[in-house]
Design a protein that fits this description.
The protein is an alpha/beta fold. 32% of the residues lie in helices and 28% in strands. The chain has a 9-stranded mixed β-sheet. A 6-stranded parallel β-sheet has the order 3-2-1-4-5-6, sandwiched between helices. The structure holds nicotinamide-adenine-dinucleotide.
Length: 358
């Protein structure tokens, strides 16, 4: 892989020189985080609308602004590019950046199709460049903790996952609610699930009760290997905001309420046991169900901005010449679920298989 000095403990590591492309709603958050991250140095902000780029850097900034992507890609001082343009343009902008030898971080979703996403993954691999997808939630302390608990076996065997992400959202012009909001739930799912619980298929249902021309309410059902199941509800039309994920395990159940900063995570030592665990067939079905009522604990979490974690991971992957936590392959797995969801919607909700997962 290209890039500067290796990251050795105690050694000075040169900050990664970054450009942000796209300074609309989300881009300014990247600008702020790249500006404050010690591992990065923001060189230039690019937007077709230069005024937006100027606003994003602020009046007193020394960071350059431009309306020309070619100018950014032709600048040898720029090592890496963060793409925050609309999803339909990700593939074109990111491929151009990879072709110019830049490491790339792309906003979610990685691209607008699996075929385009695969082009990006192949281009990055062919040039030994870092390709990262900004699955922002994976960098929250809550999701990092959930992954640790799930993969460490604290919850036992995962049996079900139920995710709700609803509020009065911006009705997007180019994508439905599944492509707008479900990348969050699906990227979290693919990030936390342990081996043996891979997604097998996707069924999607959607509705457009306001006549927007695309689904504004969406339900995704994802059967998981081993008899488990995940479900996500995403919705732009809800007057109340709910961001809750519940993960049921054979030992414990975890509740993540992202809108409750004082107690985002709760782990319940409560659940349902089937007496006669070792019985099979008819005998097992006849065994008695019993209910466990144990304690609830709330794991302590430090507060930190997810995007700061994401930009730090991007810089670390570049300097350490390794794949980032949410690499292009992770972006591709999310795209495969989204594409299967669109196919399922078109078929009235039938289950669309995903094929081999990794
Ligand atoms: N990670 C998150 O939580 C999160 C949240 C919101 C949005 N996003 C993602 O961020 C991306 C941008 O979303 P948004 O809501 O900011 O969109 P937006 O439409 O508000 O902004 C996009 C900007 O990109 C500029 N642009 C378009 N094509 C360009 C090009 N070729 N070169 C330079 N500039 C170009 C536009 O002028 C515009 O200013 C999307 O992929 C979206 O999914 C991520």
């Amino acid at each position: 892989m290209t890039g500067g000095g290796a990251a050795q403990e105690g050694a000075f590591v040169e900050p990664v020189r970054v450009a942000v492309v796209g300074a609309g709603y989300w881009g300014p958050n990247l600008v702020r985080n790249f500006s404050t991250c010690p591992a990065t140095e923001l060189q230039v902000v690019c937007d077709l609308d230069v005024e937006r780029a100027s606003r994003a850097v602020g009046r007193h900034s020394t960071v350059a602004v431009t309306g020309s992507l070619e100018e950014v890609l032709g600048d040898p001082a720029v090592e890496a590019v963060a793409v925050a343009t609309p999803a339909r343009t990700h593939a074109e902008v990111a491929l151009a950046a990879l072709d110019a030898g830049k490491h790339v971080m792309v906003e979610k979703p990685l691209a607008s199709s699996v075929a385009d996403g695969r082009k990006l993954v192949e281009a990055a691999a062919g040039r030994s460049l870092v390709l990262m997808c900004d699955h922002t939630y994976c960098y929250t302390p809550a999701v990092r903790k959930i992954r640790e608990l799930v993969r460490g076996g604290e919850l036992g065997e995962i049996q079900w996952v139920d995710s709700v992400r609803i509020n009065l959202g911006l009705v997007q012009r180019d994508v439905d609610v599944l492509w707008d909001l479900a990348p969050h739930d699906l990227s979290i799912l693919e990030f936390i699930l342990p081996e043996g619980r891979e997604p097998l298929a996707v069924a999607a249902h959607g509705a457009d009760p306001i006549g927007a021309g695309r689904s504004c309410v969406g339900y995704l059902t994802v059967p998981l290997r081993g008899g488990a199941i995940a479900h996500a509800h995403v919705n732009w039309l809800s007057p109340t905001k709910i961001r809750t994920t519940v993960i049921g395990g054979s030992r414990r159940t975890l509740v993540w309420d992202d809108l409750s900063p004082s107690q985002r995570l709760s782990v319940y030592d409560r659940g349902v046991d089937l007496d006669g665990e070792r019985l099979t067939g008819e005998l097992r079905r006849e065994a008695m169900v019993s209910y466990r009522t144990g304690d609830m604990t709330a794991p302590a979490l430090h507060e930190s901005e997810a995007l700061q974690g994401a930009v730090t991971e991007f810089a670390g992957a570049i300097r350490e010449r390794r794949a980032p936590l949410t690499d292009g392959e992770a972006g591709l797995r999310v795209l495969r679920m989204l594409e299967a969801a669109s196919e399922s919607l078109g078929w009235g909700g039938t289950l669309v298989p995903l094929g081999s997962w990794r």
